[in-house]
Specification:
The complex is a heterodimer. By secondary structure, chain A is an alpha/beta fold. Chain A is 32% helix and 19% strand. In chain A, helix 6 packs parallel to helix 9 (168-195) and helix 7 (144-154) packs antiparallel against helix 9 (168-195). Chain A is globular. By secondary structure, chain B is of the alpha/beta class. The chains are: A alpha/beta, B alpha/beta.
């Protein structure tokens, strides 16, 4: 396969249900393969994106919390950026913070002020200057949903503010407004990509790192406290030349995208680094059947503190049918039948279901 | 009370310059240390460069555990230095001021544990560094028991031979003369040490190339200074950089023609000696290191010619001074059975070249036993396969891989076994105060604090 450029567009905090209900984004399915059931490793950006870039869970890489960007074991885990940079790709990241993705391998790592930035013009200009000579990898981080939630939710309420949970409609409206802006951003950026014909020689991945609560569960006003589906379940659009778009409903994991890109670009994994946890999704993209993999996720519930913990205290394993959650902080377990109870309201722990023990063992093994 | 420990690491010191007849350097002090201690003349480093080698020594682990592309010191949680410190030792040192060595530098309790290692301001032993080490060794401020790490950089490229030893009397190569210049300092350091209560270890991180007839690759490169000057005069300034390129290519072309001609009757070993200093290599001249244990705990001086590995150094120290047992599993083994002439099973030495900025075709992985040396491309087991019969071809002139596929397979299996049988360890990714502050600032900015 010819050497393709790589463009990753991250819509920080974008909820899957909004994507499914967006007529514009649904139209993208005619150009992009659509993954409607992608499970993030962690429902907050730092741990989630380190897992995406490394194709590995933070349990192994060292980045498993808000605090552990610099604990990423860079001598043992090779990031997507490093793979591309080793092949002389020009690598460029544009984002709102220097700690949310692994920096290594980037030729240029630029941060912007999320309060002041005009992301549409900034990223459009950046694409205008896309190198015509060398292959490039560009990472574009759209942070405005996060900025809006930070200003009107995280700074205003606590995880247990009754006022917040009483006004679910207001929460929905607030989120929808932010989502609408992200839709406009995406449309303009994709128009730019098409006008420059970049889609003809690029692999394009559009994804989200986690969802955001609109008041589903008391104890979580934003994200990062729980392991429920409204923050864990995300989406991805992938396009590459000569590959017919397909819609994949099967559960995949956000750690699978990095190996998918390597596979699509014919880049072998480096045996001198740790093996990947993720697996290529190219067979699924090509319409083949593969066995669904269990998805592991974890986060650190801060409860009433205005400070996330340094280590995860809540973890889950998920299949398309079941979710098993272990709350390490109080040694409790939760089990949900996702097919019949997608909102995860009826805890089936202790109801003599065989799956309880199976998933507990999986969780213990994956969290170790 | 634990004994004191002095760990002298002479960066780039070859094993064959410390012992044997194939050397012209004068080293009465090192000779005396060897005579009164236990000397291993077949000690093998895990890597051809400083960082991987030091990681391997201090963690007692082969470099694939701490990362073969690590460009800095990576210490495991509960590494030997941790154990030494937690046992009550005070750690002091004189160490090159490289950011990449910070994890070790930070452990040192003395006020000024670093020195400038690189020209133009490099501090050599004869320029005051030697005195600084002596001052540390006789300082009344050091608290016992102490572990003192002395990392000498005088043999590092570019070699600067002190005037005093720059004559035939001290060696017929610049390298030998530089070794001769280091030797009296070793004597002066030892004068400050009570060997009855101090264990002394002298070793190095890797060997070095000593160009045959003192003619390294650079010697064959024409200067073309007249042509360059003429070009500068005739061409406008903006074109100087472009104009220089063909001349540089021509210089390299002429160099290679001359080098090939000069190398015509040389062995592979001799040809290799002329390669540039930073050439990756797993040949013995680069990975064979000196290893001496002397002083406390060394009862019967002897020369041991069994192959041992750099990873064995700290398990041996631990055994001699009776440190608490290591919790994690390491690759090294104590060499005490060899001290006591007891039965000793040889273990293979895993080898890896140091990383350049990007993966290179020269990256190699290998294994050495006392009988064979095996290495190949580090990411492709079918490329660049080399096998040498060390008993009959100690200078590694004849690659016998093609005719010995079963030995190649066996060596390959041994490498896999070492990797597969390694217990995972926890790496210490220390976050500095500055980094923690930076994270706090960013988390606050993003609304999480």
């Amino acid at each position: 396969m010819e050497k393709l450029n790589v463009i990753i567009i991250l819509i920080d905090g974008c909820r899957l249900d909004r994507i499914i209900n967006s007529s514009y984004l649904q139209k993208l399915k005619s150009h992009f393969s659509f993954f409607s059931n992608s499970i993030t490793y962690s429902p907050h950006t730092i741990a989630a994106m380190h897992a995406v870039f490394s194709g590995c869970y933070g349990t192994r890489t060292g980045t498993n919390s808000y605090w552990s960007t610099y604990q990423f074991k860079k001598n043992r885990f090779k990031t997507l950026t490093e793979y591309l940079n080793d092949l002389d790709y020009y690598t460029y990241a544009d984002l709102h913070s220097e700690i949310v993705i692994p920096k290594q391998g980037f030729d240029k790592f630029v941060t912007y002020d999320e309060d002041k930035v005009d992301i549409v013009s900034r990223h459009s200009d950046l694409l205008d200057n896309f190198s015509k000579d060398n292959n490039s990898f560009v990472y574009l981080h759209y942070s405005k949903i996060h900025t809006g939630i930070r200003n009107s939710v995280l700074k205003v309420y606590t995880n247990f503010s009754e006022e917040y949970f009483k006004n679910k409609k207001l929460n929905e409206q607030r989120y929808d407004k932010l989502f609408k802006e992200s839709e406009i951003y995406l449309k303009k950026i994709l128009d730019k990509i098409y006008s420059l014909n970049l889609h003809q020689n690029s692999l394009i991945l559009i994804m989200s790192d986690h969802g955001i609560s609109v008041g589903e569960k008391m104890g979580e006003i934003g994200y990062g406290a729980f392991c429920y589906d409204y923050t864990l379940k995300t989406f991805a659009f992938i396009s590459m030349p000569k590959i017919k778009p397909i819609e994949v409903h099967q559960q995949v994991r956000s750690i699978d995208f990095m190996p998918t890109i390597l596979d699509a670009l014919d880049i072998p994994t480096d045996p001198e680094f740790e093996q990947l946890d993720g697996e290529s999704l190219m067979p699924l993209i090509k319409g083949k059947e593969t066995q669904e993999k269990i998805a592991y996720s974890e986060t650190g519930n801060p409860f009433n503190q205005r400070k996330p913990p340094k280590e995860p205290n809540t973890m889950s394993v998920r299949t398309s049918k079941w979710k098993f959650i272990y709350n390490k902080h109080n040694n409790t377990k939760e089990l949900y039948d996702l097919e019949n109870d997608p909102s995860e309201t009826l805890n089936l722990i202790g109801t003599n279901l065989d799956i309880e023990d199976v998933l507990w063992k999986e969780l213990v093994s994956l969290s170790d | 009370m634990y004994p004191n420990i002095v760990f002298i690491l002479i960066d780039g010191l070859r094993s064959d310059r410390c012992y044997g007849n194939d050397r012209s350097c004068k080293t009465p002090n090192i000779d005396s240390l060897i005579k009164n201690g236990i000397y291993f003349d077949q000690a093998i480093s895990s890597a051809d460069g400083t960082f991987l080698s030091i990681n391997s020594i201090f963690n007692s682990l082969f470099p694939f555990v701490t990362g073969v592309r690590a460009k800095k010191i990576v210490l495991t949680k509960d590494s030997y230095l941790d154990i030494i410190k937690n046992t009550g030792y005070h750690i002091y040192g004189i160490i090159p001021k490289f950011t990449s060595l910070n994890p070790i530098i930070k452990l040192c309790e003395n006020e000024n544990p670093t020195f400038a290692p690189e020209p133009p301001n490099a501090e050599y032993l004869s320029d005051g560094l030697g005195k600084k080490i002596i001052d540390l060794l006789k300082s009344k401020k050091t608290q016992e028991p102490w572990f003192i790490l002395i990392h000498i950089n005088d043999l590092h490229w570019p070699l600067t031979v002190p005037e005093k030893t720059n004559s035939d009397r001290y060696g017929n190569t610049n390298y030998d003369r530089s070794v001769s210049a280091i030797d009296p300092w070793i004597g002066k350091f030892l004068d400050q040490i009570d060997l009855n209560k101090t264990l002394v270890i002298l070793t190095s991180d890797h060997g070095n190339l000593i160009p045959v007839d003192e003619k390294g690759i650079d010697v064959f490169e024409p200067e073309f200074q007249r042509e360059l000057n003429l070009g500068k005069k005739l061409l406008p300034k903006f074109s100087h950089n472009i104009g220089k390129k063909p001349i540089i290519s021509l210089k390299k072309f002429v160099r290679d023609v001359r080098l090939n001609k000069a190398n015509r009757n040389l062995t592979s070993y001799e040809k290799r000696s002329r390669l540039p200093y930073f050439t990756m290599s797993l040949y013995d001249e680069i990975i064979k290191i000196p290893l001496v244990f002397a002083g406390y705990g060394v009862k019967t001086p002897q020369l041991i010619s069994k192959m041992v590995r750099a990873v064995d150094i700290f398990p041996t120290i631990s055994n001699i001074v009776k440190l608490p047992k290591m919790i994690m599993s390491v690759h090294g083994k104590s060499l005490i059975p060899l001290f006591e002439n007891k039965e000793y099973v040889e273990y293979g030495a895993y080898l890896h070249t140091i990383p350049y900025e990007k993966p290179s075709e020269s990256d190699k992985v290998g294994l050495r036993t006392s009988k064979f040396k095996y290495f190949r491309h580090s990411r492709d087991s079918t490329k660049d396969i080399h096998l040498f019969d060390l008993e009959n071809d100690p200078f590694e002139n004849n690659n016998i891989a093609q005719n010995n596929p079963s030995i190649v397979n066996d060596m390959e299996k041994k490498i896999s076994d070492i990797i597969n049988n390694t217990t995972p360890v926890e790496i210490k990714e220390e976050v500095s105060e500055e980094d923690t502050k930076r994270i706090e600032k960013e988390l606050k900015k993003m609304g999480y604090l």
